[in-house]
Amino acid sequence: MISLTDHARAEVQRLMAQRQLTRAVLRFGVQAGGCSGLQYSMDFADETGENDHVFDLGEVRVICDRESLPYLDGLTVDFSRSLVGGGFKFHNPNAKRSCGCGTSFRV
User: How many CA atoms lie within 13 A of 23 on its CB side?
Assistant: First the structure.
């Protein structure tokens, strides 16, 4: 399961409205890279693929490819408007270590 806090959900909805993405879904994934070995990917997609797992979170649909899901299962995404360190924050119970900026991790 991947979940969004109320703050993250509101920001995703704001971005979708701003970009006029009425049918888009929010795609999460994992890629090699970053200072800890793996980094998060997050973007809007127009459609789902046959290898995607879909999470219906009300007004926001989240998808994750099956290869990334073991790394992201249990992930909670938050959003903060803080001047320092603001933006989307990833709280991943599978991460054994994370980098200082919080966008890459190691399992």
Answer: 3
Count Cα atoms within 13 angstroms, Cβ side, for 97. Answer: 7
CA 99 to CA 103: how far, in whole Å?
7
C-beta separation of 29 from 65 below 8 A: yes
Cα separation, 98 vs 29, in Å, equals: 16
- 3 state SS of 82: coil
How many contiguous H segments (helices) and E segments (strands) does the chain have?
2, 9
**What range does the domain containing 18 cover?**
3-106
CATH number at residue 67: 2.60.300.12
Report the domain count for the chain: 1
Render pLDDT for 17-31 as a digit per residue (tens, 0 to 9).
999 998 899 999 998
55-71 confidence digits (pLDDT tens): 998 889 999 999 999 99
